[in-house]
Specification:
The complex is a heterodimer of chains A (about 375) and B (about 200). Chain A has 10 helices and 15 strands. Chain A has about 375 residues and is an alpha/beta fold. In chain A, the strands form 3 sheets. Chain A has a 6-stranded antiparallel β-sheet with strand order 2-1-4-5-6-7, with helices on one face. In chain A, strands 8-12-13-3-14-15 form a 6-stranded mixed β-sheet, with helices on both faces. In chain A, a hairpin with a 2-residue loop joins strand 6 and strand 7. The model of chain A has no long low-confidence stretch (mean pLDDT about 90). By secondary structure, chain B is α/β, with parallel strands linked by helices. Chain B has 8 helices and 6 strands, in the order H-H-H-E-E-H-E-H-E-H-E-H-E-H. In chain B, helix 1 packs across helix 2. In chain B, about 20% of the residues are buried. The chains are: A alpha/beta (about 375), B alpha/beta (about 200). At the A-B interface, helix 4 and helix 5 of A face helix 7 and helix 8 of B.
Chain lengths: ~375, ~200
């Protein structure tokens, strides 16, 4: 799979820009702040309907414009598919697939498969567990789109259950004689266990498949200095890491029963996949707090590359994007990374300094200027 | 801003669901230029809806008398009862022409985020109806979303000990559609609910 052409209208700093991309390596060169990342952000948005930099859509639209358009032609198995997205902040996005309008913007998901590594990903190692849960869930949905529904259902149930617990908590605090209306808590427990078991099983299967890829990718990036490991740490006691849905639902139900009084006390759901952690280790030590900046950075990169490898092992050939990666690496690591990603069906690399990109990845080169993109070789 | 009555009308129309300020203004000026008899008919319909329409004392569907048309119909069976969230769900099921039992309208679904619990729905009234002993099957036709599913589970937990058979509407693929156009959630559910042929 590769992106053949990308066009932006009123997206971020670009009023109107179009660029023809090639299979294999594409290097976007430009000074800091000219808008290299905006280009890859647009592609990321087509792949996930989400920006890796901001939570809301408003910053994506150029100042003074009311909507932004991203148009890209994706070639997959020799066929070209046109994907067009119009981003209207505060309203539903409009999408076109081929020549006809899509019923919902969500229908374009899957048209472009993409793995993006950006400087923000350092948070995967240094940030809260929520960052790592999102990494797992995004990859899970990328591999098996069905999990988008499981994830949304689970999040909704947790929200409703928390609302119920909070009402009970407040009723208690203000001295209400009855502890709020907790009669329906058993119902929410059932649904939480059911959707939670589904999500948990999906994540456990994913982590099992991902682990060897993470070790391999870290080893390649860091050249044998320490072994990287990942382990899923559920918030509930599991006798063994099973992926049997019924057994997991049972364990979740038991855990909810055991923490019931604490949950009513604190007014929030304390067990379930939304409290789980993906533990990252370097040798015997946890990566968080112990890893150096360089090691954290290599680990974050290894997590993304492992996701990329896993998708390729599934027979999906995603586009790989490395945003501002090479400046952070020494020469040896640059060469090894280049070797690792050299076989990508399409690779997009952004950098400020031309010489940072190893010779092996020279490929097609583009000069990014203020609002313009020009092919230079 | 307009003055007096026209602005009052625009303000009132703007409070209706789905009507924004621009639409309210357009409707208001349409009313202003319309034939007086048409306007009187509209005003009459608005008044009448509040005066005449009430809720059926049995199933809580909208009705024009003590009981709604469905509850009065002697040809329907009392043995099957279908629970729905809103009166518009009754209309939807009636359009199928498949169902010959009675209804019970809850008036919503359990939704803690909006502060709606079982006490805010007509669940106590449902239990009284079931306690009479004529109903043998209860069909749960709440919406297939998080809140509707939770309401269905809640009712199932309460009703099953009474020895009444409880069923839930199936969810799956729309008829006459293409498989390729089904979203992954619907298709996933349809896979879960597949049956032998």
């Amino acid at each position: 799979m590769y992106v053949h052409r990308l066009e932006l209208v009123d997206f971020r700093s670009y009023e109107r820009v179009g660029v023809d991309l090639q299979p294999g390596a594409n290097v976007l060169i430009g000074a800091n702040g000219v808008g290299k990342t905006n280009l890859v952000e647009a592609l990321g948005y087509v792949a996930t309907l989400d920006s890796h930099r901001v939570a809301t859509d408003a910053p994506l639209v150029r100042m003074g414009a009311t909507s932004a358009v991203i148009r890209c032609a994706v070639v997959h198995d020799g066929r070209e598919l046109l994907v067009e997205l119009e981003i209207v902040p505060g309203k539903a996005n409009r999408a076109r697939l081929g020549r006809s309008p899509a019923r919902r913007a969500r229908d374009v998901l899957g048209a472009l498969r993409l793995v993006l590594f950006a400087p923000e990903d350092l948070e995967l190692v240094r940030g809260d567990p929520a960052e790592r849960r999102r990494y797992l869930d995004d990859l899970l949905v990328n591999r098996q789109p069905r999990y988008a529904g499981v994830r949304a259902d689970y999040e909704r149930v947790v929200k409703q259950r928390n609302a119920l617990l909070r009402t009970a908590y407040l009723a208690r605090k203000t001295g209400g004689s009855r502890g709020g209306d907790l009669g329906t808590l058993a119902v929410w427990d059932t649904h939480l266990a059911q959707h939670g078991a589904e999500l948990l099983a999906g994540r456990l299967e994913l982590v099992a498949a991902l682990t060897p890829h993470v070790a391999k990718a870290y080893d390649a990036v860091a050249a044998g200095r320490g072994a990287a490991g990942i382990a899923y740490r559920p918030s509930i006691e599991l006798a063994e890491l099973t992926t049997d849905r019924a057994a997991l639902a049972e364990a979740l139900t038991a855990a909810l029963a055991a923490s019931r009084s604490a949950e009513i006390e604190r007014g929030t759901t304390l067990v379930g996949p939304h409290r789980d952690e993906l533990a990252l280790t370097l040798g015997p030590l946890p990566a968080k707090g112990y890893a150096s900046h360089g090691e954290s950075w290599s680990f974050a990169l290894a997590l993304r590359l492992a996701g990329y490898d896993l998708l390729r092992a599934d027979g999906i050939e995603p586009v790989l994007v490395l945003d501002d990666v090479f400046a952070e690496l020494d020469t040896g690591r640059r060469e090894r990374l280049a070797e690792l990603v050299g076989g990508a069906s399409q690779l997009l690399v952004t950098c400020a300094v031309d010489d940072d990109v190893p010779a092996a990845l020279r490929g097609t080169r583009y000069q990014v200027g203020e609002g313009t993109v020009r092919r230079v070789g | 801003m307009y003055e007096g009555a026209i602005q009052d009308l625009i303000d009132e129309l703007g409070r209706l669901p789905g009507v924004g300020p621009k639409s309210a203004q357009r409707i208001a000026f349409h009313v202003l230029s319309a034939d007086p008899t048409d306007v009187n008919r509209l005003a009459g319909a608005l008044r009448k809806v509040k005066e005449l329409v009430r809720f059926c004392t049995t199933c809580y569907n909208v009705a024009e008398s003590e009981q709604c048309r469905i509850c009065r119909d002697p040809r329907r069976t009392n043995e099957v009862l279908c629970v729905v969230e809103e009166p518009k769900d009754v209309v939807a099921i009636e359009r199928t022409g498949e169902f010959r039992g009675r209804y019970h309208v809850l008036g919503g679904a359990i939704n803690p985020l909006e502060g709606i619990g079982p006490d805010n729905l007509r669940i106590r009234e449902l239990m009284i109806r079931l306690g009479e002993g004529t109903v043998r099957e209860l069909i749960l036709a709440t919406d297939p979303n998080t809140e509707g599913e939770a309401t269905a589970t809640y009712l199932a937990l309460m009703v099953k000990p009474m020895g009444i058979s409880v069923t839930r509407l199936a969810s799956g693929l729309p008829v006459g559609g293409d498989l390729e156009y089904a979203d992954e959630i619907t298709l996933g559910r349809a896979f879960e609910g597949r049956r032998a042929v």
